[in-house]
Write a structure and sequence with these properties.
Elements lengths: L1 H15 L5 E5 L10 E6 L5 E5 L2 E5 L4 E4 L9 E7 L4 E6 L4 E5 L2 E5 L8 E4 L2 E5 L14 E4 L3 E6 L2 E6 L5 E4 L4 E2 L2 E2 L1 E4 L2 E6 L4 E6 L2 E6 L2 H4 L4 E5 L4 E6 L2 E8 L2 E9 L7 E7 L4 E6 L4 E5 L4 E3 L13 E3 L5 E3 L3 E4 L2 E5 L10 E3 L5 E5 L2 E5 L8 E4 L4 E6 L4 E8 L7 E8 L7 E7 L3 E8 L2 E6 L3 E5 L5 E3 L8 E6 L5 E5 L4 E5 L2 E4 L15 E2 L4 E6 L2 E6 H9 L8 E3 L19 E2 L5 E5 L2 E5 L13 E7 L2 E4 L3 E3 L6 E7 L11 E5 L8 E2 L5 E5 L4 E10 L6 E10 L7 H92 L5 H37 L5 E2 H18 L3 E5 L5 E2 L3 H18 L4 E9 L2 E8 L6 H12 L8 H4 L2 H11 ...
Parallel strand pairs: 11-12, 59-65, 67-69
Antiparallel strand pairs: 1-28, 2-3, 3-4, 4-5, 6-7, 7-8, 8-9, 10-11, 12-13, 13-14, 14-15, 16-17, 18-19, 19-20, 20-21, 22-23, 23-24, 24-25, 26-27, 27-28, 29-56, 30-31, 31-32, 32-33, 34-35, 35-36, 36-37, 38-39, 39-40, 40-41, 42-43, 43-44, 44-45, 46-47, 47-48, 48-49, 50-51, 51-52, 52-53, 54-55, ...
Enzyme class: transferase
Catalytic activity: ATP + protein L-histidine = ADP + protein N-phospho-L-histidine
Keywords: ATP-binding, Membrane, Nucleotide-binding, Phosphoprotein, Transmembrane, Transmembrane helix
C-alpha cells in the first residue's frame, strides 16, 4: 500500500511541478505600433525584426525602434523572406512594394524579379511561399518557393516541380491545402507534405515522394503547423502546447517547449532564439509574447500544504535534500515525506552517525537514522543555533534570552569533551545574539553575532573582536576551497577575513549584495550568493583582485525571476542557507519554493556586439557610420548605443567616455541606451563605448569620431588673420608709443636735469646752512653756557651782599656806600650781558627771516657815524667816514650794521681827544673795511685771545666776564657772513680793526 501511495504522490507532484516560464507581453501600451505581429526574424547583427500592420519594428531586448513612415502607400507588412546570413531580409507591403532590411535599417527598393514576392506563370500569379500559416492564405491562392535544384509551384490540388537545369516538370496530384493553410513545409532543403487522410508525412525530392514518416502530432487535425522558411524553423501547436520540430539524421525530433494556457488561438508567427533560449509568439490581436525558459527549477509544496517558505535544508541523497518539514525533494519534485512536526525551520544538522539534529521550540530533538528518522531523543531547554563536530568532540552555538526583562539574547560557544551533548569542556560567553560559527584552525573558532565577528582562542581562552567600533550582523561564515574565509552580513555587504582584518568587498550596481545569506562555490571558482533580491554569481578571483587593487571593477551577474524563480527573495537566518549535493546541484531556500540548479549548466548571457550609428541632433534623427559630422550650431546631442541583448538588463554593463572634455571618465549608460552631450565645442572628439562580454571581466570596445567644424571666426586662418592685424596694430602703436616716450623722456630728462641741478644746489646750500646752523647752535650753546656761568657770580654776590646788609641792624655811611656800590657794579654787569644777548638774538632772527639786499656801504657806515657822533664829540673825538660811495654790498645789512656798531662803540668808549677813521677798499668779491682809532688800544693778551678765538671759535672757551660780550658777538657775526677781522695795535696809540668781508649775493 505504501508503494502505491508513493507512486500516487509522485504522479500528483509531477502535475503540480510543471515548468515555470517567464512571459513578457508587448503591445501598443509598451512599445509596439500595432497589436498584430505578422512575422518575426533575427538578422545577422542580432536584432529581432517584426512586421506589423503599422510598420516594421526592430527589437534589441529592451526597446523597440519603429519604422512606420516609410515612403509607401501602406505600412501594412507581411512575412519576411531572403537571407539573414547575407544581410538581405525582405518584406512586402500591401501594394507590392518591397522593403530591404540591410545593415540594421529598412529602406524601400524597386521590385525586380529575383527580389519579387510573386511570379506570373501560365496565366497564374504565384505568391512567394515563406510561411504555411500566414494571413495571406486564402481560397484559390497559388504559391511558389525555390530550392537550389528547382522551383515548386503549389495550387489547390497539385504540386509542380520544375528542375532548374533541365527545366523538366513533375506533377504530384495532392490536396495541398487544409482549412486554407498549405500543408507543405521545408526543413533545410527537404520538402515535406502532411497527408492528414493517410496520417503520414511524405518527404519529397525533385518533385517525387521518397519517404514516409508517422508523426501523430504533425498529422493530428488539432495541430497547427507554423513553418518559417527564412528561419528554417517548424513549430506545432496542439491543445495549448507548443512543440519544436527538427529534422535530423533522416528523422523528426519533436520536443515540447511550453504550455500556453489558451493563448495559442491567435498566434500567427513563431520564432525560437536558441542562443538566448527564448520563444517569440506573434499574435493577430495581442501583440508579442516573449517566453523565457528557466535555467533554474523551483519546487513548491502541494497546494494542500501551507505556503512554500523554506529555510534550513540538508543533503539527503546524492540528488535530494530534506527540509524541516521532513519532506525530501530532488529537482523533479517530492521524493519522500518523513512528516516532521513543529520543527523550527531555522536549524538542522547531522551528527557523526548521520542522525538528524533539529529543534522543536526550545528543545533539541534527534531523529535516528537507523530507525529511518522515527525515534526521537530529546534534550530539554537547549536552543541550538549552529553545530558541527570533528573527530573528537562536538561544537555547539547556544542561544539564551537575557534575564533583564528585555527581548534581547546572549549566547554561548560550547565545546564538549566527546561526541555527545553530555559534558561541556569549555564555555565562552557572548553578550549578543550569536548567529554562525566555523572552525578557523585547530586552535581557533570564528563566531558571528548580530553585532560582530569574534575569534576564539582554544588555547588561551581569549576572545578577539575582529570588527571593533563597527557593528556587523553576521549571516554566514564560509571557507572557500583555497582557504579564504568570507563573511556575509545583513545590510553591510560581503567581507574577506585576512590577517585578522575584515576587508569589505564592493557592492553591485543596486547594492543588493549588501544583504547576502551565504556563498556556494562551484568547481570553476564562481561564488553563488543568494540575497533578498536575486541570486548573484561572481568569480572569487575578481574579489581577490579587488583586495590587491581597489580600482579593479568587480562584476556581479544577477539571476532573477525570469530565470525560473517564483520570487527573487531567498531566505537566510538559518544555520544552512544553501546546500551542495553530491550530483553537483545546488539547492537554495526561498520565500516561495526550493530552487534547484546545476551551476555547470547555468549559462551567463552577455551581448556579442555593440552598434553606434544613430543620434538625435537637436530633436532631429541622424544616421552615421563611424564618423558623426555635426554642425557647429548644434546644442544637444543624444547618441544611441544599440546592443542586441535579450537577457536580464541588470547584467548589461555599458560604459561610455567622451574625449576632449574636462574630467573625462567612464560613465554608465542607462537602459535607454542613450548618451547625452550638451554644448560640445568644435573639433575632433572620440566617443568610446565598452560593454562587458564575459564573466572574467572582458570588454569589447567601439569607437566613433565626432567632428564639429568651427565657425569662420574659430578657424585657424581667421585666427591667424586677426592675429596678424592685431600684431600690426600693436607694432604701429608700439612704434608711436616709443617715439612719444622718447620725446617725453627727453623732456623729462631736461626737467630732471634742471631740477637735479636745482636740487643739487639746494642740497649744497642746505649742507652749508646745516654746517652754519650747527656752528651757530654750538656757539650759542657755548655762549649760553658761558653766560649762565658768568651770571652766577654777580647774582650770588648781589645775594650775599643783600644778606649781609639785612643781618646788620645799623649801617654806617661808609658801609652803606660800599654795599650799594657792589650791588650797582654787579647789576650793571648783568644789565650789559642782557642787552648784548638781546641784540644777538634779534640779529639771528632777522638774519634767518630776511633775504640779502643790495645797499650802499657808505650810507650804512654814515648812519652809524651819526649815531655815535654825539658821544664822540663829548669825548672830543672825530669820526671820519672815508668809505667809497660807489661800493654796493650784498652782505647782510643787519649783521654788518651790528658788527660796525660794536666796533665803533668800543672805539668811541676808549678814544678821547682823538680820531676814529673808517676806510674801505675792494678786491674782487672782497670788501675790506679798516676802522682805526687813536684810543688807549687793546692790550696784547686780548688781541691774542680774540685772534685765537676767531680761528677756533667752536672749541675755545668764552671769557665773557673778563672780556665782555662785544667782540665775542662780532666774531660770531663774522662767522655768519663768512668774514674775518684782524686786530692790530697801532704804533703810536690806538687799535686798528680790519674787516675782510665777502660781497656775494645770497641765493
Amino acid at each position: 500500500m505504501k508503494k502505491y501511495t508513493s507512486v500516487l504522490l509522485l504522479f500528483i507532484f509531477s502535475i503540480i511541478y510543471t515548468q515555470h516560464y517567464s512571459i513578457q507581453l508587448y503591445n501598443t501600451d509598451n512599445g509596439l505600433p500595432q497589436n498584430s505581429v505578422k512575422d518575426i526574424i533575427k538578422d545577422k547583427y542580432g536584432f529581432i525584426w517584426l512586421t506589423t500592420e503599422n510598420g516594421i519594428v526592430r527589437y534589441d531586448g529592451m526597446k523597440f525602434l519603429v519604422y512606420k513612415n516609410l515612403p509607401l502607400n501602406s505600412q501594412r507588412f507581411m512575412y519576411f523572406y531572403g537571407h539573414p546570413e547575407k544581410d538581405s531580409i525582405y518584406t512586402t507591403a500591401d501594394y507590392g512594394r518591397t522593403v530591404l532590411i540591410h545593415r540594421k535599417s529598412p529602406k524601400v527598393i524597386n521590385s525586380f524579379k529575383k527580389k519579387s514576392n510573386f511570379i506570373f506563370k501560365d496565366h497564374t500569379n504565384y505568391f512567394l511561399y515563406g510561411s504555411n500559416y500566414s494571413y495571406t492564405t486564402s481560397p484559390g491562392l497559388s504559391l511558389y518557393f525555390q530550392l537550389t535544384d528547382g522551383t515548386y509551384f503549389i495550387k489547390e490540388n497539385s504540386l509542380k516541380y520544375i528542375d532548374t537545369v533541365s527545366q523538366k516538370e513533375k506533377n504530384l496530384a495532392i490536396k495541398t491545402f487544409y482549412k486554407n493553410a498549405a500543408r507543405i513545409f521545408v526543413i533545410n532543403s527537404s520538402v515535406f507534405f502532411i497527408d492528414n487522410q493517410a496520417k503520414n508525412i511524405q518527404k519529397i525530392e525533385k518533385g517525387k515522394v521518397v519517404d514516409y514518416y508517422n508523426e501523430p502530432l504533425l498529422t493530428d487535425i488539432h495541430s497547427k503547423i507554423y513553418w518559417s522558411r527564412i528561419n528554417n524553423q517548424v513549430f506545432i501547436v496542439n491543445r495549448n502546447s507548443i512543440y519544436r520540430c527538427l529534422y535530423e539524421q533522416n528523422k523528426f525530433n519533436i520536443s515540447k517547449l511550453a504550455q500556453l494556457d489558451h493563448i495559442a488561438e491567435n498566434i500567427i508567427s513563431v520564432y525560437y532564439d536558441k542562443s538566448y533560449h527564448k520563444l517569440y509568439l506573434g499574435s493577430s490581436t495581442n501583440g508579442l509574447q516573449v517566453i523565457s525558459f528557466p535555467d533554474f527549477t523551483t519546487l513548491q509544496r502541494h497546494s494542500s500544504k501551507p505556503e512554500s517558505v523554506f529555510y534550513a535544508t540538508l543533503p539527503y541523497t546524492k540528488s535530494s535534500v530534506i527540509t524541516t518539514f521532513g519532506e525530501s525533494y530532488d529537482h523533479n519534485g517530492l521524493v519522500e515525506n518523513k512528516s516532521f512536526e513543529s520543527i523550527t525551520p531555522f536549524f538542522m544538522a547531522y551528527d557523526e552517525k548521520k542522525n538528524l539534529i533539529a529543534r522543536k521550540a526550545n528543545d533539541l530533538v534527534i531523529y535516528q537514522k537507523k530507525t529511518s528518522f522515527k525515534e526521537i531523543i530529546s534534550k530539554k531547554n537547549f536552543i541550538l543555533i549552529d553545530f558541527f563536530f570533528d573527530a573528537n568532540r562536538y561544537y555547539a552555538l547556544e542561544l539564551h534570552q537575557k534575564k533583564d526583562g528585555t527581548t534581547e539574547y546572549s549566547g554561548n560557544l560550547l565545546i564538549y569533551k566527546d561526541l555527545s551533548f553530555k559534558s561541556v569542556q569549555k564555555r565562552f560567553f557572548f553578550n549578543n545574539e550569536p548567529s554562525k560559527f566555523l572552525k578557523f584552525d585547530e586552535d581557533h573558532i570564528l563566531v558571528g553575532t548580530i553585532k560582530g565577528l569574534y575569534k576564539v582562542s582554544l588555547k588561551t581562552n581569549k576572545i578577539l573582536n575582529l570588527n571593533p567600533g563597527n557593528e556587523l550582523s553576521i549571516r554566514s561564515i564560509i571557507k572557500s576551497k583555497d582557504g579564504n574565509f568570507w563573511i556575509t552580513t545583513l545590510g553591510k555587504g560581503l567581507y574577506l577575513l585576512k590577517n585578522n582584518r575584515l576587508i569589505k568587498m564592493p557592492y553591485d550596481t543596486n547594492n543588493t549584495i549588501s544583504s547576502s545569506h551565504t556563498i556556494l562555490e562551484d568547481s570553476h571558482g564562481f561564488f553563488w550568493i543568494p540575497t533578498n533580491n536575486g541570486l548573484y554569481k561572481v568569480l572569487e578571483s575578481q574579489l581577490l583582485q579587488y583586495v590587491q587593487n581597489r580600482q579593479f571593477k568587480v562584476n556581479y551577474y544577477r539571476f532573477s525571476k525570469d530565470s525560473g524563480f517564483k520570487t527573487n527573495e531567498f531566505n537566510g537566518g538559518s544555520n544552512i542557507c544553501g546546500t551542495r549535493l553530491q550530483n553537483g546541484e545546488f539547492v537554495l531556500p526561498s520565500l516561495d519554493g526550493l530552487v534547484f540548479f546545476d551551476p555547470m549548466k547555468i549559462k551567463s548571457y552577455y551581448p556579442e556586439n555593440i552598434y553606434i550609428e544613430r543620434a538625435i541632433i537637436d530633436n532631429k534623427e541622424q544616421y552615421f557610420d563611424k564618423v558623426l559630422n555635426l554642425k557647429p550650431e548644434c546644442n544637444r546631442i543624444d547618441i544611441f548605443i544599440d546592443i542586441p541583448y535579450y537577457s536580464n538588463p541588470d547584467n548589461l554593463v555599458v560604459e561610455a567616455k567622451l574625449s576632449g572634455i574636462p574630467n573625462s571618465r567612464w560613465e554608465s549608460i542607462g537602459k535607454d541606451g542613450k548618451f547625452s552631450i550638451s554644448n560640445l565645442s568644435y573639433g575632433n572628439h572620440s566617443f568610446v563605448v565598452r560593454i562587458l562580454v564575459s564573466d572574467d571581466g572582458k570588454y569589447i570596445y567601439k569607437k566613433i569620431k565626432i567632428i564639429i567644424p568651427p565657425y569662420f571666426y574659430q578657424t585657424l586662418w581667421f585666427k591667424l588673420f586677426i592675429s596678424s592685424i592685431i600684431l600690426l596694430l600693436l607694432y604701429i602703436v608700439v612704434r608711436w608709443r616709443i617715439r612719444f616716450l622718447k620725446k617725453k623722456n627727453h623732456e623729462l630728462e631736461e626737467i630732471v636735469n634742471s631740477r637735479t641741478k636745482s636740487l643739487s644746489d639746494t642740497v649744497e646750500k642746505l649742507k652749508i646752512t646745516k654746517i652754519k646752523l650747527h656752528k651757530e647752535i654750538e656757539q650759542q650753546k657755548k655762549l649760553i653756557g658761558t653766560i649762565t656761568h658768568d651770571i652766577t657770580t654777580p647774582v650770588k654776590f648781589i645775594a650775599l651782599t643783600a644778606k649781609e646788609a639785612l643781618n646788620q641792624n645799623e649801617l654806617s655811611g661808609q658801609q652803606s656806600e660800599k654795599i650799594l656800590n657792589s650791588i650797582y657794579k654787579s647789576s650793571d654787569q648783568l644789565y650789559n650781558f642782557t642787552i648784548t644777548l638781546k641784540e644777538y638774538a634779534d640779529i639771528y632772527t632777522h638774519h634767518r627771516s630776511n633775504k640779502t639786499e643790495l645797499y650802499s656801504l657808505y650810507h650804512l657806515i654814515d648812519e652809524k657815524r651819526v649815531l655815535f657822533n654825539a658821544i664822540a664829540e663829548n669825548h672830543h673825538t672825530v669820526i671820519i667816514n672815508n668809505v667809497d660811495k660807489a661800493i654796493r654790498a650784498w652782505i647782510s645789512k643787519n649783521i654788518l650794521s651790528a658788527i660796525i656798531h660794536n666796533l665803533l662803540d668800543n672805539s668811541v668808549k676808549f678814544t678821547k681827544n682823538g680820531t676814529i677813521t673808517i676806510d674801505s677798499s675792494v678786491e674782487g668779491d672782497t670788501i675790506i673795511l679798516l676802522i682805526t682809532d687813536t684810543g688807549i688800544g687793546m692790550d696784547e693778551k686780548k688781541i691774542e685771545y680774540y685772534t685765537k678765538l676767531q680761528d677756533n671759535i667752536e672749541n675755545e672757551k668764552l671769557l665773557l666776564q673778563k672780556y665782555g660780550m662785544g667782540l665775542h658777538l662780532v666774531l660770531q657775526l663774522l662767522q655768519m657772513i663768512e668774514g674775518k677781522i684782524v686786530f692790530k695795535k697801532n704804533k703810536l696809540k690806538g687799535t686798528s680793526f680790519k674787516l675782510i668781508l665777502t660781497n656775494k649775493k645770497d641765493d
